[in-house]
Model the fold of this input.
Amino acid sequence: MGNFTVLLVICVLVVILFAALIAILSRYRKCPSDKILVVYGKVGTDEMGNPRSAKCIHGGAAFIVPVIQSYQYLDLTPISMNVDLRNALSKQNIRINVPSRFTVGISTEPGVMQNAAERLLGLKLIEIQELAKDIIFGQLRLIIATMDIEEINADRDKFLVAVSKNVEIELKKIGLRLINVNVTDITDESGYLNALGKEAAAKAVNDAKKSVAEQNRDGEIGQANAQQEQRVKVAAANAAAIEGENESRVAVADSEASRREREAEALRRATAAEAVQQAKAKQEAYAAQQEAEQTRAALEKATQKADVIVKTEIAKEKAEIDAEAEAEVIRRKARGEADAIFAKMQAEAKGQQEILTRQAEGMRAIVEAAGGDANAAVKLLIAEKLEDLVAIQVEAIKNIKIDKVTVWDSGAGSDGQNSTAGFISGMMKAVPPLNELFKQAGMELPDLLGKEIKEAAEERAAALTAAQDEPERVETEIISEE
Done:
């Protein structure tokens, strides 16, 4: 029984060790040649002591520590894409189309590979392709803007070198490298490249025609010289052989003269034909050059017109923006002034409301002090203001200056009063009585003051009645001093 237990323990330990070994081996990852193994998590520090975001391995293997590390692969398969650039503005302000095909891939350089791990890990192939295409579009437009159309079209090597250099620099920032560039064709909507092609073709045709005419001329001249030399030698041999036959010699001489005339005529025709061909070649060259110059003039005219129109439109938009800004300033200023006026009037209304409220509270307190009797409250107010009212009546007649008043009375009038009494009574009535002032204000004096004023009026009327018994001529002097 004891041996069985020991054996069982040994078997369990072997199984555990075997499982641990399998687990360790399963975390050991090898990197294929067409991929980059990216280990991320806690992967150590760089040369500066800063924590590294990832560790990239190409062509090797690494042990992935469980829990604190994980891994992914970056595919090194080349990505080929069509970059159809349209309406790119060249240095001559002429828009051209540059269709091209670019082949890119993830770089295996240490620093660039780190950029790919930080910026492309987890992206799909189509997403990486769109990102690279955006960068290529921007760099192509930048390069074309610094070169002339003739330079781009004629010196393709220089153009491709500039494209490769600029695009490669930008692609490395996201971890890519440029593998190949192929520009298929360069066209423009203005017809400038077509005009250049026609000019070059016309020049080549004219050069070929000129070369053909020169070769024909040289051949004819050589042939004539050879025949002439041949005939001369034959004639000399014949003359030496037939010295005694004068008639034959004369016939031979006549024949030679006729032949020479025909040869001269042929030479003349050949020379004239050559001159005519040269003149036609020059005429065609001038016509082609004239067409090219007309095309160039039309292009220059269109360019100048586009510049003027663009500047005019920019000035128009600027004027509209300035006018809108000025109108907005006026509207805001008017809105601010209106808000200020409204706030001021609102404050004044609140102040007036507060004054009236305080006055109403004061009146309420006076009525309450008078035991709720409004008439008694009015008496209290009048008693407080009586001195001011009397001062107003005194002020009304204070500045009247009467040195002397002479009245000739003719006796009693129709109402029982003489003229003197009527005059004095009217003058006293001209001064506003206190009771009349209160009546005009819609109020009545208290009964106490009313009775006193009534008694004073009756006494004044009795005095005036007694004055009727005076002689008919009464001289009264009233002296008023300030």
In short: Residues 193-331 form one domain.
